[in-house]
């Protein structure tokens, strides 16, 4: 199915069609990639280095390495086909309503996971906390991280927000990232009604000699990295059929043709981060009678050429189509400005045949 829309997409590149037709075809192709509309990043965040690292491991050259499992993320040792980095959308809570005296900072953390599709299963969720400060004043801080279970409503008296402690730890170095395992929490958050975010509290130690919150004000950012597995994308690859040695092929006979798709040329450079383009290829050529084994014809195609030789007016020759395709990995901004690394099946033609 994807090939049909990809074929449409490619012909957009090859032919010059009208604007509306082009937009329609683009929409079709985007939908097959899982986008309701063309992403248009408003304030694109920086690309997390971990995503570059995984991307480069996978796409070292223009085409993915052979035989690698794109449905397993080696970096984290978990199954998965989509890696997303969600920016935090929570707010700082003004510490005015009589906080404990050593509370330096209180913040809500919120990550909108609505970009995940229904079929996806969360195999990993990891929260990263970072401060921009490199210098270090010698204080020791205490950190508490809670999952918010229920918000207190305004005017409901003294009823406190109900929350569950996820982590409590002490730290000194501000320039190092801190990571928290939120795999189970992300699973719960798949239901948006249950996603009320987290509460983060940072205290300075009372016994600390440097008695202030200096440095912690440089709170830089928190992000949530998730790995999900889309079982529809990750079916076991079919067993490769083997064909004998190929004799010389005439140039107008069905075969794979080289086609490099450059994302800039279709105006996608502002949301597709990498690759810049890739070798998509296409199939073109005739499937003449008699259909030889080298044209990778199906039994049906062989029968069809035979029928064609009897009734050339009514029965067409078989078509030259892809018989083997390979996936690519793409790094892009989605419709919510999240950075996503995702694996797409059937994006490049490897072999053609008469079908
Ligand atoms: C999450 O993002 C979706 C899609 O952008 C939006 O419709 C929804 O309102 C957001 N939810 C929250 C709680 O911000
Ligand atoms: C994170 O937590 C999940 C569920 O509790 C666990 O299965 C997984 O091994 C943990 N991951 C790491 C990296 O510790
Ligand atoms: C048929 O398949 C073989 C190997 O599976 C491949 O090398 C060849 O290019 C294919 N034929 C065509 C016409 O692409």
TrEMBL record:
CDD domains, sorted: TGF_beta_GDF1_3_like
GO molecular function term, any single one: growth factor activity
Signal peptide: 1-18
Cellular compartment(s): Secreted
UniProt protein name: TGF-beta family profile domain-containing protein
Keywords annotated in UniProt: Disulfide bond, Glycoprotein, Growth factor, Secreted, Signal
Residues of the TGF-beta family profile domain: 238-355
Gene3D superfamilies: 2.60.120.970, Cystine-knot cytokines (2.10.90.10)
Highest taxon in the source lineage: Eukaryota
InterPro entries per UniProt: Cystine-knot_cytokine, TGF-b_C, TGF-b_propeptide, TGF-beta-rel, TGFb_CS
Stated family: Belongs to the TGF-beta family.
GO CC annotation, single: extracellular space
Tagged with keyword Glycoprotein: yes
Pfam families: TGF_beta, TGFb_propeptide
Lineage start: Eukaryota, Metazoa, Chordata, Craniata, Vertebrata
């Amino acid at each position: 199915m994807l090939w049909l829309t990809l074929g449409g997409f490619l012909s957009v590149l090859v032919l010059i069609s009208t604007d509306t037709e082009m937009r329609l075809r683009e929409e079709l192709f985007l939908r097959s990639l899982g986008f309701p509309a063309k992403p248009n990043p408003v304030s694109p965040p920086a690309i997390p280095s971990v995503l570059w690292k995984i991307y480069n491991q996978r796409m070292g050259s223009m085409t993915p390495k052979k035989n690698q499992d794109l449905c397993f993320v080696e970096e984290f040792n978990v199954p998965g086909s989509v890696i997303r980095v969600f920016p935090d959308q929570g707010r700082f809570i003004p510490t005015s309503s009589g906080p404990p005296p050593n509370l330096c900072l209180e913040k809500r953390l919120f990550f909108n996971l609505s970009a995940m599709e229904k079929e996806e299963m969360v195999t990993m969720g990891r929260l990263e906390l970072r401060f921009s400060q490199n210098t270090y004043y010698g204080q020791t801080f205490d950190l508490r991280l809670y999952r918010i279970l229920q918000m207190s409503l305004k005017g409901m008296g003294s009823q406190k927000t109900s929350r569950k402690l996820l982590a409590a730890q002490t730290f000194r170095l501000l320039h190092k990232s801190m990571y928290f395992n939120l795999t189970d929490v992300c699973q719960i958050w798949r239901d948006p009604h249950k996603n009320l975010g987290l509460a983060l509290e940072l205290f300075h130690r009372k016994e600390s000699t440097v008695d202030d919150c200096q440095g912690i004000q440089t709170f830089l950012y928190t992000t949530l990295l998730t790995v999900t597995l889309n079982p529809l994308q990750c079916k076991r690859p079919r067993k490769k059929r083997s064909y004998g040695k190929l004799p010389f092929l005439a140039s107008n006979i069905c075969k794979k043709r080289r086609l490099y798709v450059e994302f800039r040329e279709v105006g996608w450079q502002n949301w597709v981060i990498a690759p810049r383009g890739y070798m998509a290829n296409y199939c073109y050529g005739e499937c003449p009678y008699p259909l030889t084994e080298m044209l990778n014809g199906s039994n049906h195609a062989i029968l069809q050429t035979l029928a064609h030789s009897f009734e050339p007016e009514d029965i067409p020759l078989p078509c030259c189509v892809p018989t083997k395709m390979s996936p690519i990995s793409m790094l892009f901004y989605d419709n919510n400005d999240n950075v996503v690394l995702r694996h797409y099946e059937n994006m490049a033609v490897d072999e053609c045949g008469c079908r």
